[in-house]
Amino acid sequence: MSRVLVLNSGSSSVKYRLFDGSSTIAKGLVERIGESGGEVADHRAALQGIMDETDLSGLVAVGHRVVHGGPDFTGPTVIDDDVVARVEALVPLAPLHNPAALTGIEVARKLLPDVPQVAVFDTAFHATIPPEGVTWAIDRSLAERWQIRRYGFHGTSHAYVSRRTAHVLGRDPASTNVITLHLGNGASACAVEGGRSVATSMGMSPLPGLVMGTRSGDIDPTVIFHLHRVAGLPLDEIENSLTRHGGLLGLSGDNDLRTVLERRAAGDADATLAFDVYCRRIREYVGAYLAVLGRVDAITFTAGVGENAPAVRAASLAGLEPLDIEVDPERNERREEIISPPGARIPVCVIPTDEELEIAGQSRTALSLPD
Ligand code: AMP
Asked: What number is the average pLDDT over the span 68-74?
């Protein structure tokens, strides 16, 4: 038995999945932790509940999803006190995300002291992006002092779907170049060259890049100065607006693309513009990453929107036939694994992501355990 428990601890939730090899034998979600009307008072109670309900015999590892690994964590890392201290030191870089993971780690280490624990970082896959792809052209001394650079996120997803894409196409991942489009509630694009990330659209935080459910994606930073100086909004309010009231929600009033699509079908102008801005941004990144990679062997859509919205897949790539990029309408509607026409030079794929499975696999790798 080679069981791995994967924990994804949010500020008020814990998602868990127990794997035996690659099979899921238990999973669940504890929500509204510490909130009135919630099931449990704190993360400790949440994890204790999960452990009481789940048969953890044969557990060889606990894999923790950690959003921000900063500049130093470049792969899955076996957790000890030093690692905990280093993840704590990264909290200023990820104040919204890392504290929850730390709570999950602390509680799991107490409750399962004999089971090795591994941190798997959303940023780590992007450690292979060359310096010119992570450096912004700002004052270097400021950037170095405050660890300002692109880190990128969704790494476990981009790693997993780019590898799966190569397998689906019968190719070796080490010689396959893929543009991966992770379009979920959060969304990011990644250029993967021979299994290594060489460009990605998120930055120091998960805010820039593609248009998301509630995050703005790329904007001119001057928007922030303007809203602060001219409109008089406090910085916290601007951050809240860009992260929680931007994206599809800001443009249309709805953050769920399903609703946006329904309203667009009924002729709603705001929903139509939201959809157009969303798809146009994807196309801009596809174009950029074609240029970064030079040779592209596949373009892959994944996550909630990428896997379930044929209209987004079609509109994002429409008009790119001169670049040998084409979506076959019937294959797209049926959501086949390959949605480009037979024999296309650049296949377009739809590959369901599985971040927890990837975290389980990477946790085993970090401990040199067999799959
Ligand atoms: P994720 O973060 O990967 O779970 O993706 C969640 C998002 O996927 C939701 O906010 C929806 O906007 C989108 N989504 C899920 N199902 C569909 C669907 N059938 N059509 C369009 N969008 C969908």
From this structure: 95
Give the residue extent of every domain in the chain: 3-121, 172-350
Mutate to test the pocket of ligand 1, among 8, 185, 248, 279 (most ligand atoms within 8 A of CB): 185
Per the annotation, does 257 bind a ligand?
yes
pTM of the model: 0.96
Neighbouring CB atoms inside 10 A of 135's CB total 14
185 labeled binding residue: yes
Q: How confident is the model at residue 51 (pLDDT cuts 50, 70, 90)?
A: confident
pLDDT at 38 over 80: no
**Distance set, CA 215 to CA 212, 306, 307 (Å):** 5, 17, 20
| HSE-CB for 53 with a 13 A CA cutoff | 15
Please give the span between the terminal C-alpha atoms of the chain, in angstroms, as a whole number: 11
Question: Measured on CA atoms in the order 169, 173, 174, 178, is the torsion positive or negative?
Answer: positive
Residue 352 CA, ligand 1 centroid: distance in Å: 12
> Largest Cα–Cα distance in the chain?
62
Radius of gyration of the chain (CA): 21
Report whether 182 belongs to an annotated binding site. Answer: yes
297 in active site: no
Mutate to test the pocket of ligand 1, among 15, 153, 305, 354 (most ligand atoms within 8 A of CB): 305
Q: How far is the CA of 269 from the centre of ligand 1 (A)?
A: 21
pLDDT per residue as tens digits for the range 257-274: 999 999 999 999 999 999
Regarding the domain with residue range 3-121, which homologous superfamily does it belong to in the CATH classification?
A: ATPase, nucleotide binding domain (3.30.420.40)
Between the CA of 301 and the centroid of ligand 1 the distance, in Å, is 12
Same fold, 3-121 and 172-350: yes
Superfamily of domain 172-350: ATPase, nucleotide binding domain (3.30.420.40)
